[in-house]
């Protein structure tokens, strides 16, 4: 008798599960998404377009000089999603990789008037507007919304180290005599620094400019911000 009651209980559970599961399976078959789901979508990246990006804080303001020789300020990027990097034209190590990856980002969003790039030199004595213009031409830059900036050394170093908290410094003991992080900062249309969480739930704040995964991530998030 006890065994029969057990079988009846199991059958009832299976029947209840069927009422819940069958419609769900049918819907997924219609959508060609049998193996999908919230957890799997998060792993695969399918859910990324609907994910809310983190707001880190306001991007610092600046007034510098463009590679065109004209004054340029952060106000001119207001209303545009943009990426900011710190680099220098004679860098023998990570800058060429950063430049190549930034070119990939430029190509991805080329022609979109709501997107731009700001590249700020940390060697303003060498990187005059003329030198930066030449560098842009050597890179094959096509976008009028990619701005190469120079200015007073103290202003630039304060902007990087205290404004963005992206380390830059001089070091005569290394190739190139300067050191800096290889990160890209992502700024939205309202001037807020935006970012995402890593696979472990930690804020990344900035994106790895020399890592293909970082470049893929920032391009995904640029797309999100352009659609906000």
Describe the structure using short key phrases.
alpha+beta, 228 residues, Glutaredoxin, nine-stranded mixed sheet, two-stranded antiparallel sheet, 6 helices, disordered N terminus
How would the blueprint of this fold be written?
Blueprint: H1 2-30, H2 38-44, E1 54-58, E2 63-66, E3 71-73, E4 81-87, H3 95-109, E5 115-121, H4 129-139, E6 146-150, H5 153-164, E7 168-170, E8 178-180, E9 183-187, E10 192-195, E11 207-208, H6 212-226
Parallel strand pairs: 4-5, 5-6
Antiparallel strand pairs: 1-10, 2-3, 2-6, 4-9, 7-8, 9-10, 9-11
Tell me the CATH superfamily of the largest domain: Glutaredoxin
3D shape: globular
Radius of gyration based on Cα positions: 25 Å
The number of strands is: 11
- Average pLDDT rating: 83
CATH topology of the largest domain: Glutaredoxin
Largest sheet, strands/sense/barrel: 9 strands, mixed
Task: Report the portion of residues in β strands.
Answer: 15-25%
The separation of the N and C termini measures 63 Å
Low-confidence stretches: 1-50
At CATH level 2, the architecture of the largest domain is: 3-Layer(aba) Sandwich
For the record, the count of structural domains works out to 2
Structural class: alpha+beta
The CATH class of the largest domain turns out to be Alpha Beta
Helical percentage: 25-40%
- Count of runs of 4 or more consecutive helical residues: 6
Order of helices and strands: HHEEEEHEHEHEEEEEH
């Amino acid at each position: 008798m006890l065994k029969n009651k057990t079988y009846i209980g199991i059958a009832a559970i299976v029947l209840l599960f069927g009422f819940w599961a069958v419609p769900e399976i049918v819907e997924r078959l219609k959508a060609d998404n049998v193996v999908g789901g919230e957890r799997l979508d998060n792993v695969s990246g399918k859910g990324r377009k609907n994910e809310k990006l983190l707001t880190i804080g306001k991007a610092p303001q600046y007034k510098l000089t463009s590679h065109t020789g004209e004054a340029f300020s952060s106000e001119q990027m207001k209303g545009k999603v943009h990426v900011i990097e710190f680099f220098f034209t004679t860098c023998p190590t990570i800058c060429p990789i950063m430049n190549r990856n930034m070119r990939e980002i430029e190509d991805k969003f080329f022609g979109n008037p709501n997107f731009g790039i700001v590249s700020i030199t940390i060697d303003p004595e060498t990187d005059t507007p003329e030198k930066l213009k030449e560098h842009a031409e050597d890179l094959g830059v096509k976008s009028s919304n990619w701005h190469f900036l120079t200015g007073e050394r103290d202003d630039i170093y304060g902007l990087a180290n205290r404004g963005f908290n992206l380390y830059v410094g001089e070091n005569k003991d290394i190739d190139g005599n300067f050191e800096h992080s290889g990160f890209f900062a992502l700024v939205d249309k309202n001037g807020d620094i935006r970012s995402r969480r890593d696979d472990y739930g930690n804020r990344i704040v900035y994106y790895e400019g020399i890592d293909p995964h970082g470049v893929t991530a920032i391009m995904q998030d640029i797309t999100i911000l352009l659609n906000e």
